[in-house]
């Protein structure tokens, strides 16, 4: 990977956030409660008892945040729309004050020359729909989501030309419904498999709804968090392939080939659950899209557990005598996530390109968390984040050189924010936030990113 990598003309540089992580104003202007309001207010669910009640107060401070985007020199901002701001009960009555907020945000972005790229679902499901349908585990959620998507597209589609339906359905179904670490905090494999299918069905129906409701031509895509699993010995190769099927194939298969991967069991494959997949569903899910969004943070390594079952240093248990491994020599972030930029190149060339062919791909999130602090000069010198960014941008450039159709990159995140179950303890921002005062400080990595976006190349 050469250090002077440059990017194609019209490569789209961006930064990303999500509504519950930054907006605050959790009960303002008619917003209804979401499952994350409920979950974060449940003792023991989120580190330190943190909630998104105030977060970065971006609901009020978005003009300041747009100034930060201008300093970064980005051409696009990926934010998410809060479903319970638009429909406090999830269905039925539309809250015009909620739509007005996003309309003001979109206008201010366009004024600044920044393209708005909204995500319609970044995990803040209306609590009323969790109660009514069991959330994503219930089939009726799919129509409700498509209806809400149509409402937003009708209101903003004269100015928004690129939409993302869902953020990371793998995390929604597994972290939320299988392992219970995210809202709604359930640990039911059956619910997780059902959620997997209903998320995809909701996606397909919403693609149709957005195109039908939008007053101007719209590009529509979905964001997946895809992974690479690397076996550390030949005996672990089959388990690595299994993990990739659960992580990637169960989404890429239906979206791009109209079928779930055949190797998976009923614990993981909606196709094997009686009554879950209805006639016609697979065609709706495979509705053609205009781009694929890819989120990437870290690779996985799979090894065989020690014969006595004891965990060795850096290992975490997986099922069936396998372990998740941290190979010596690779750095880890504050999240304990491995740093290995070549794995992003591997993902794009080995996993993404074969599935999507020539379809445009956007990296819709990539970034890292470190223990940042403000030094005596009032600066945040986050050299590890800068190095992570540089390495991963190099990987993107080399994947493009190898023929992958990557059209843009969104850094995660514009701001330090509410990092879900980790609360405010884990910082991913290019901007530091002092949560006591809401003061924003562009970090060294943000200055670096501004150089990249202006040169359309990696400096030095
Ligand atoms: C993504 N994992 O979540 C989300 O889209 C962001 O909202 C979040 O802040 C960011 O990554 C950093 O965590 C993920 O366990 C959560 O593999 C968990 C995983 C991956 C992504």
Explain what you see:
This protein has 460 residues and is of the alpha/beta class. 38% of the residues lie in helices and 15% in strands. It contains 14 helices and 14 strands. The strands form three sheets. The chain has an eight-stranded parallel β-barrel, surrounded by five helices. A four-stranded mixed sheet has the order 6-8-10-9, with helices on one face. A two-stranded antiparallel sheet has the order 13-14. The radius of gyration is 21 Å and the shape is globular. The mean pLDDT is 97. Bound molecules: 4-nitrophenyl beta-D-glucopyranoside.
Shape: globular
- DSSP summary, beta strand count: 14
Biggest sheet features? 8 strands, parallel, barrel
What is the percent of helical residues? 25-40%
Strand content: 5-15%
Structural class: alpha/beta
Order of helices and strands: EHHHEHHEHHEHHEEHHEEEEHEHEEEH
Kindly provide the radius of gyration, computed on alpha-carbon positions and rounded to a whole number of angstroms: 21 Å
Low-confidence stretches: none
Name the average pLDDT: 97
Hetero compounds: 4-nitrophenyl beta-D-glucopyranoside
Q: Spatial order of the strands in the main sheet?
A: 1-2-3-4-5-7-11-12
How many helices does DSSP assign? Answer: 14
Through-space gap between termini: 14 Å
